[in-house]
Amino acid sequence: MQKLEVQLGERSYPIFIGESLLDRPECLLPYIRGRQVLLVSNETVAPLYAERVRKVLADGGLTVAEAILPDGEAYKDWQHLNLIFDALLAARFSRKATLVALGGGVVGDMTGFAAACYQRGVDFIQIPTTLLAQVDSSVGGKTGINHPLGKNMIGAFMQPRVVLADTTVLRSLPDREYSAGLAEVIKYGLIRDLPFLEWLERHMDGLMARDPALLAEAILRSCRNKAEVVAADELEQNDLRALLNLGHTFGHAIETAMGYGSWLHGEAVATGMLMAADLSWRENWISHQDVARIRTILVRSGLPVVPPPVSPDEFLRHMAVDKKNIDGRLRLVLLRQLGRAVVTDEADRGRLVATLMAGEHLGQA
Amino acid sequence: MQKLEVQLGERSYPIFIGESLLDRPECLLPYIRGRQVLLVSNETVAPLYAERVRKVLADGGLTVAEAILPDGEAYKDWQHLNLIFDALLAARFSRKATLVALGGGVVGDMTGFAAACYQRGVDFIQIPTTLLAQVDSSVGGKTGINHPLGKNMIGAFMQPRVVLADTTVLRSLPDREYSAGLAEVIKYGLIRDLPFLEWLERHMDGLMARDPALLAEAILRSCRNKAEVVAADELEQNDLRALLNLGHTFGHAIETAMGYGSWLHGEAVATGMLMAADLSWRENWISHQDVARIRTILVRSGLPVVPPPVSPDEFLRHMAVDKKNIDGRLRLVLLRQLGRAVVTDEADRGRLVATLMAGEHLGQA
Ligand SMILES: NC(=O)c1ccc[n+]([C@@H]2O[C@H](COP(=O)([O-])OP(=O)(O)OC[C@H]3O[C@@H](n4cnc5c(N)ncnc54)[C@H](O)[C@@H]3O)[C@@H](O)[C@H]2O)c1
Ligand SMILES: NC(=O)c1ccc[n+]([C@@H]2O[C@H](COP(=O)([O-])OP(=O)(O)OC[C@H]3O[C@@H](n4cnc5c(N)ncnc54)[C@H](O)[C@@H]3O)[C@@H](O)[C@H]2O)c1
Ligand SMILES: [Zn+2]
Ligand SMILES: [Zn+2]
């Protein structure tokens, strides 16, 4: 078992990473302050893993209630958040209750936000069960729900008391979801950690086989990278944290153009990262070989690298409304060199359009 | 114009108190960081005062959008909170937007909570237009909405950037609402500020005439008292802040027994404070004359002092579910002496029942 401490002053918390952590009381019980626990999960994950967590909690002498949400991003809304409040109030839970999120990023975001709001704030623990949630949502404290007019528009910054990243539960994850998580893992290598990128290149076959030891290492290094960025910019008040959005502005446009759900977020980010790499090459910042390396590792991870047939105009329209853009200028995260991303609003319009028109060529060496 | 600084480290903010502050750009504009402002009010207050605020903002070169909510505690729910998010997103407001609450405690609580959640937190300004909101909700940072199973169950701690307590707008306040606000004013004298109680006794006639200078003084001293309590216990983590609940456990039972809305909160608190005083007298902590003084000032303020005909059993049932009670013990705020409240869970059951049975006698000297 590995342990990473996310340093945030009095809101610091540990992330435990390893096999079968679900069954280990010592990872969970010391972080629960009261006697009341609400276990929040969804209809897919709960039948697989909820009973094990419930048992650890009940054996610890705690009162456990459950809220099981329907599965899907479509239910990440107020109406379903309210199911969590209903369960808390039906159980008459007090301000000393703890909420435990067992599931992917959707369950984690909703549970964290419910914890931030219930009686103006109760404790919250994350047990992320997707690779994406383990390497991304378990660090940073972002929680929230969607609004019909925008994703993640309503939420709170809320740090968990502890995160358990159990590598064993990833075995049941569908292949596409697993690959989508790898996109965010690769992202950390690209933006700030060349040695990690090299490590991933060496171990991608083992990672694709979901080898637990390699997974633990990949999760640890991912979370450490994100934690370092977040610690320097907890409330997202300067540019630093924006580096985590490599590939996301392009990816966001893909997701929007194709309709949410047809491309997974991580898939869109993967293709978006290759587009960012292509533009960085056109800006003469990275080499053609660098672009090829990025393409190769994405393909080896089972990720798409060819954008859907969307016209440059439509692409630009969807990119411009991305909330990461302030004051109407198109700010992009590009690669100053392999392993070092920068935020810039000075990318040349013509080169950007060339990238948007590259289409299938992006998939070719 | 008076100014009180609420000391909360980097979340400190000023409260301006005085006549016609609504029209004074210097109280508002310096506290707005971006260019986008959403003015939130309700259908009663907006026709009276929104245009003046809108003009100050627009003259300051800001983009102003509006969200006008229906009037009433019944609409302090998610569905109507969502109207604020709808307005923000329809106007495409960014994380640099500021929300301005113009109204009583309902508008203030909802707007503050919306500000806490919109894109995980934007700025927020309070222009409270009821006496209760000026002396109570403008300090403390509590925001939120109701859930069908409990009042104020969903919310956040969120400090405003500035509060404008305009004494002139109180002229249009209905008499019952005005008196209800005075109950909370008197409360500060009772729990920790005997000189203020004496001042109120001297000036109650002028206050009932809504004399602006007296009002400014009463609001200032009320807010200062609350600010001192809150500064020592911002997130409500020890007993200190509980003193602010003098009369509230009894009052809560009255409100619940009678159905929300038939007694105003301040009215129930007034009668509840007299019940707390009666019990404090039975505990031999304050004198019969002290109780009479409290009764007199409440009556002069137009407040009820006789509880409704509710049986002791029903009273106790409603008091026990009050969320201020931890671990099943009935914790009450009582008067150790006039001007000094304490939290205790040791009140004698027999004496408590005697207070609950006193009924009309409470109204008599
Ligand atoms: N808070 C943050 O910092 C942050 C970061 C990134 C993404 N997110 C959010 O996370 C969400 C995406 O998260 P996600 O990719 O985990 O999606 P998800 O939560 O929808 O999970 C993907 C699918 O996998 C299923 N699943 C989860 N664990 C499983 C397991 N162990 N075995 C089998 N099936 C399993 C889920 O039920 C779901 O059907 C989005 O809403 C996004 O906004 C948040
Ligand atoms: N956040 C806090 O710390 C805090 C403290 C106390 C109460 N509250 C909350 O505040 C709410 C009660 O506040 P309230 O008593 O102000 O009630 P309110 O907001 O319902 O206002 C009372 C009535 O007066 C009207 N009104 C407001 N200003 C007016 C004016 N200047 N002229 C004419 N009419 C006017 C309103 O439209 C309403 O009909 C409750 O929801 C309570 O939970 C919050
Ligand atoms: Zn992402
Ligand atoms: Zn009150």
**Largest interface by Cβ-Cβ < 8 Å:** A-B, 28 and 28 residues
Look at the structure and name the CATH superfamily of the largest domain in chain A: Dehydroquinate synthase-like - alpha domain
How are the strands of the biggest sheet of chain A laid out side by side?
Answer: 4-3-5-6
Mean pLDDT of chain A, nearest integer? Answer: 94
- The Rg value of chain A, from CA coordinates, equals 20 Å
CATH topology assignment of the largest domain in chain A: Dehydroquinate synthase-like, alpha domain
Name every ligand kind in the structure: nicotinamide-adenine-dinucleotide, zinc ion
Under the CATH scheme, the architecture of the largest domain in chain A is: Up-down Bundle
Class from secondary-structure proportions of chain A: alpha/beta
* Multimerization status: homodimer
Can you describe what's shown?
2 copies of one chain form a homodimer. Chain A has 13 helices and 11 strands. Chain A is an alpha/beta fold. Chain A has 2 domains: 2-172, Rossmann fold, CATH 3.40.50.1970; 175-361, Dehydroquinate synthase-like, alpha domain (Up-down Bundle). A 4-stranded parallel sheet of chain A has the order 4-3-5-6, sandwiched between helices. In chain A, α10 (265-282) packs across α13. Chain A is globular and about 60 Å long. The model of chain A has no long low-confidence stretch (mean pLDDT 94). Bound molecules: nicotinamide-adenine-dinucleotide (2 copies) and zinc ion (ZN) (2 copies). Residues 42, 44-45, 48, 71, 73, 76, 103-107, 109, 129-130, 132-133, 136-137, 140, 142, 152, 169, 172-173, 177 of chain A line the site of one nicotinamide-adenine-dinucleotide.
